[in-house]
Design a protein that fits this description.
18% strand, five-stranded parallel beta sheet, Rossmann fold, globular, 348 residues, alpha/beta, six-stranded parallel beta sheet
């Protein structure tokens, strides 16, 4: 990597109701813009997944949240790949017709996009996902049969040769819940996201390979009030295509260094919501040379600003302003020089 290269990490934590990135792939425009002025962008499924919508970004690395938490403190590196062989893991709790829809979606990405998938595996027991909400309003969840999830993943790896795992778990249908209605109308928290993170974290932690999740749900009744930010989830029976596309080129997590690997010391900038600075990866980056840009107008349901944590950040109002800071960094310019009220130097 040359000195002029710019490596950026974009983080929008899952399930905290972020105004941008808390819905169905609505942070993808931000990622596209950052990728256009960066040499490398590292981000996670919550940013790039948009149900049946996705966008190929050649210089962007799809890293599950637990993997990102390990990458940030240099516990592992990222090894770019040409194509992963992706294993499809289906929850036994999915009804036969809904299961067929997901298998057909997987076949479609093989035929249309040329992705490499193993034969699928079905868990030996229903996963029994339950949804929860914290007092702050963030979402999380539990899995009744985590052992069943891990056994199916192990079979895909050992017998199918899977290099990444896409999980489809049956999630509870709660068509009448206030949380779902608020989310669809653009003012709530994604009540599925926290439980999805639990599932993908479990696989990445145990097998050290890329993983991501797509929930299996019955289609919802049409609603003319659905927010554009949530509308990607209204398109059909499955959210699986974007997950398979992301995992097909997700970097592998490695502990031995080889030329071309990416390690956290090469990260120049991490961009996070201002009110969500308490995540593991953000804390790790803040204790390194990485510059933290905190975006104030990406409001969330939690209040963990950088100042009480002793974290030094560059505070900006919006992602548009963050893009301006990145442009000056890329050009080797101190962004403060663009301010008409530049102060004089002082004696130390």
């Amino acid at each position: 990597m040359s000195l002029s290269d710019l490596t950026v990490v974009l983080i929008v934590p899952t399930g905290i109701g972020a105004a941008i990135g808390g819905y169905a792939g609505d942070a993808l425009p931000v990622a596209k813009a950052i990728a256009s002025i960066s040499d490398r962008l590292i981000t996670h499924p919550n940013v790039l997944n948009g149900a049946q919508l996705y966008w190929p970004l050649e210089n962007t690395y799809y890293v599950e949240g637990y993997g990102l938490d390990r990458f940030a403190p240099n516990q592992c590196g990222l090894r770019p790949v040409r194509q992963n062989k992706v294993g499809l893991l289906l929850d036994r709790g999915i009804e036969p017709e809904l299961r067929l829809r997901h298998i057909q979606a997987a076949d479609a990405v093989r035929a249309t996009l040329g992705l490499n998938l193993t034969d699928y595996a079905i868990t030996d027991a229903p996963l029994e996902v339950e949804l929860r909400t914290t007092d702050s309003g963030a979402s999380w969840g539990t899995i009744g049969n985590p052992g069943s999830l891990l056994r199916a993943a192990e079979a895909l790896i050992d017998r199918g040769g899977a290099e990444a795992i896409a999980v489809v778990a049956r999630f509870p249908d709660d068509d009448d819940s206030i949380e779902l209605q608020n989310y669809r109308h653009g003012s709530g928290v994604d009540h599925l996201a926290g439980a999805e993170a639990v599932i993908s974290h479990l696989i990445v932690r145990n097998f050290q390979i890329p993983a991501a999740h797509a929930p299996a749900l019955q289609p919802l009744a049409a609603d003319p009030q659905v927010s554009p930010r949530a509308a990607a989830e209204e398109l059909g029976y499955t959210f699986l295509p974007c997950v398979l596309v992301g995992l097909s080129r997700a970097p592998q997590l490695v502990t031995n260094r080889c030329p071309g690997d990416i390690w956290s010391e090469s990260v120049d900038v991490a961009i996070v919501p201002y009110s969500a600075c308490g995540g593991s990866a953000t804390l790790s980056f803040s204790s390194s040379k990485t510059q933290i840009i905190a975006v104030t107008n990406n409001l969330t349901q939690i209040q963990v600003p950088p100042e009480p944590l002793g974290m030094k950040v560059t505070k900006v109002n919006s992602y548009l302003e963050a893009l301006g800071v990145l442009t000056t960094l890329k050009a080797g310019i101190d962004f403060r020089a663009l301010n008409p009220s530049l102060s004089s130097l002082r004696c130390l």
